[in-house]
Specification:
With 270 residues, the protein is α/β, with parallel strands linked by helices. It has an 8-stranded mixed beta sheet with strand order 3-2-1-4-5-6-7-8. Helix 5 packs across helix 10 and helix 6 crosses helix 7.
Length: 270
C-alpha cells in the first residue's frame, strides 16, 4: 500500500536533476521546505528557505529519506563521509549506472531504491523509473508517493533492464530536443524564419506527444492515419521509413547510451 512520505529528507548533492525534482516537490506542496536539508560543497542553493550544509554534522539524527544526487564518479568520495552513517529508512539514488549492490556495499538503509528521472520532472511531465531489491511494500510505496508529482512512475522488475530504461527515458529528452532542433532547421531551410520554424516544431512535437498519450492506438498507427496515400505526409514518411533508417538510427543511439551506463556500473562495482 502506498504510504505518505515521512520527513525529514536529505539531498546529498543538488545539481540540475535533483534541483528540478526538489523545486517540483516544493511547488506542489508535496514536500515542506522545513523538512529538507541539502548537503553540497558550496553551502549555497538558489532555492529559498532550504537548510544547506557543506557536510553532514557528526551528531545528525537519521532522516527518514536520503537522496543521492551527486555525480556517479563521486560515489566513493561520498561513501567515505558521514553520509554513510545517516542510515535512513529510505535511500534513493539518481546516480546513473550505479547498481543497488554497489549502493548497499557503501550505505545502510532499510530500503535502497534506484531512481532514474528525466528533466521534464520539473513541470510534472517527467518519467521516473524505480528499482529496488527491497520487498518492503511500505517503503516502496513511500518511494512511489514521493515521485508521483514528477510525472509517470514505472517500477522496473529486473535491474539488468535499468541501462535500457536510462537510455530510453533518462536520456530520451536530449534526443527529442535534437529532433526538434533538426525539424525546425529543416523548416527554416524551406524558407520559414528560424524563430517561427522553431516555434512550429516545438508546438508540433508537443501536440503529437499529447495526442499519442491520449489514445490507445500505437504511434505507428497514428502515423499511418495522418498519411493519406499519395499525400505529402506519406511522401515524407517514405524518406524516414526507407531501409528503416530512423529505427536503425534510434537503435544505435540508445545502444550507445546503454553501453555507457553499463561502463559506469562496472566502474562503480570497482
Amino acid at each position: 500500500m502506498t504510504q505518505p512520505l515521512a520527513g525529514p529528507i536529505w539531498l546529498i548533492g543538488c545539481g540540475n536533476m535533483a534541483g528540478a525534482m526538489l523545486r517540483r516537490w516544493l511547488d506542489t506542496g508535496h514536500v515542506s521546505a522545513a523538512d529538507v536539508t541539502v548537503i553540497n560543497r558550496s553551502g549555497s542553493l538558489p532555492i529559498d528557505a532550504i537548510r544547506v550544509l557543506t557536510e553532514v554534522p557528526a551528531d545528525a539524527p537519521a532522516p527518514a529519506t536520503v537522496m543521492l544526487g551527486v555525480k556517479p564518479q563521486q560515489l566513493d568520495a561520498i561513501a567515505q563521509t558521514a553520509v554513510a552513517q545517516l542510515r535512513p529508512r529510505l535511500l534513493l539514488s539518481i546516480l546513473a549506472g550505479v547498481e543497488n549492490a554497489a549502493l548497499a556495499a557503501r550505505f545502510q538503509a532499510d530500503a535502497i531504491v534506484r531512481a532514474m528521472p528525466n528533466l521534464p520532472v520539473s513541470i510534472g511531465k517527467g518519467v521516473v523509473a524505480l528499482h529496488s531489491d527491497s520487498t518492503d511494500e511500505g517503503l516502496r510505496g513511500a518511494a512511489t508517493a514521493l515521485m508521483a508529482p514528477l510525472g509517470t512512475v514505472e517500477w522496473i522488475a529486473e535491474e539488468g533492464l535499468f541501462d535500457a530504461v536510462t537510455a530510453l527515458s533518462g536520456c530520451g529528452p536530449g534526443f527529442v530536443f535534437r529532433f526538434i532542433d533538426a525539424m525546425g532547421a529543416a523548416g527554416a531551410a524551406l524558407g520559414l524564419p528560424e524563430d517561427q520554424a522553431r516555434r512550429l516544431a516545438i508546438a508540433t512535437v508537443e501536440g503529437a506527444g499529447a495526442l499519442a498519450s491520449r489514445t490507445d492506438a500505437s504511434p505507428a498507427t497514428l502515423a499511418d492515419r495522418v498519411a493519406s496515400p499519395g499525400g505529402s505526409t506519406r511522401e515524407g514518411l517514405n524518406v524516414l521509413d526507407r531501409e528503416d533508417v530512423l529505427r536503425r538510427l534510434m537503435a544505435e543511439t540508445l545502444a550507445a547510451s546503454a553501453r555507457r551506463n553499463a561502463e559506469m556500473a562496472a566502474a562503480a562495482r570497482g
